[in-house]
Each structure stands twice: as C-alpha cells, then as structure tokens.
Design a protein that fits this description.
By secondary structure, the chain is an alpha/beta fold. It has a single domain, classed as 3-Layer(aba) Sandwich (Cytidine Deaminase, domain 2). 37% of the residues lie in helices and 24% in strands. The strands form three sheets. It has a five-stranded mixed sheet, with helices on both faces. Strands 3-6 form a two-stranded antiparallel ribbon. A two-stranded antiparallel ribbon has the order 4-5. Helix 4 packs parallel to helix 5.
Length: 154
C-alpha cells in the first residue's frame, strides 16, 4: 500500500486541528514538526476558560477578533508550556501566518513554513521571512487525496 508523504501527513494534521477552531471567521490549524515528529499543535480559539466565538459571537475590534489566539501562537505556546524547543523546527499551517504570528515564528527559531492557502499575506511578513532566511512554501492540500488513502484496501 502506498503511504502519504510526510508533508501531506503534517498538513492533514493541521487541517484536522482546524476542525477544533472556535472562531467563526476562519478555522486555522498549525502543526510544529521536528525530525519528522509532531512536537506541538494548535488551532485558533479563545483563551482557556473564556467563552467561545462559536457560542457568543466574535469580539471585533479594528476588523479583527480580539478574543481569538491564532493557531500558530497556540502551537508555540504549547512548546513553551511543555518545555519543548521549537528551534530549527518546521510549521505546517492551513493559512499563511499573519504578521504577528510571523514575528513569533521567527523569534521561536522555526526555519520552514508550509501553508495550504494564502490569507492576507502581509508584505512586511514576507520581507521579515526573507530577511531571516526562513523558507516558506505553499503546498497543495486535498482532503480528497486523504480520503482516497483511507478507502484503499491494503
């Protein structure tokens, strides 16, 4: 039986995490990987113990939901909380990271970003990534391809 490629596997994990999102505006998932091992994952949602956007609506300020912590940040904070280094790791994200997440990714020592969809790709974020020598690449993701693997007979 054929196996899915590592990139497909980790991107599928990010899309699975996005299904846990509690923000109505956009469901995002992020998976941090080191040496082909998942070290952290996150999705966009409220601070622990706070109400969720899906239950009470988004809390909008200047066009952004301020209740939500982004998936990338949640994954990075999981590393910090568990004492796991993200230095030289790779992050797989369902959508191109926002400017603040990009800055955090750089500061956390992540060296590669793979994303499935463009989403307001900020010019300054791209400049910072290039300046820091961080690779970023849009890779296609197809839930249909994953479904095909699941329905194949071994």
């Amino acid at each position: 039986m054929d196996r899915i490629k590592w990139d497909e596997y980790f991107m599928a994990q990010s899309h699975l995490l996005a299904l846990r999102s509690t923000c109505q505006r956009l469901s995002v998932g992020a998976t941090i990987v080191k040496d082909n091992r998942i070290i952290a994952g996150g999705y966009n949602g409220s601070v622990a113990g706070e109400v969720h956007c899906i239950d009470v609506g988004c809390l909008i300020e200047d066009g952004h939901c301020i209740r939500t912590i982004h998936a990338e940040m949640n994954a990075l904070l999981q590393c910090a909380k568990q004492g796991v280094s993200s230095d030289n790791a790779t992050i797989y994200v369902t959508h191109f990271p926002c400017l603040n997440c990009t800055k955090s990714i750089i500061q956390a020592g992540i060296k590669k970003i793979y994303y499935a969809k463009d989403y307001h790709n900020h010019k300054y974020a791209i400049k910072l990534l290039n300046q820091a020598g961080i690779e970023y690449e849009k890779i296609p993701f197809s839930a249909n391809k994953i479904a095909e693997f699941l329905t194949k007979e071994c």
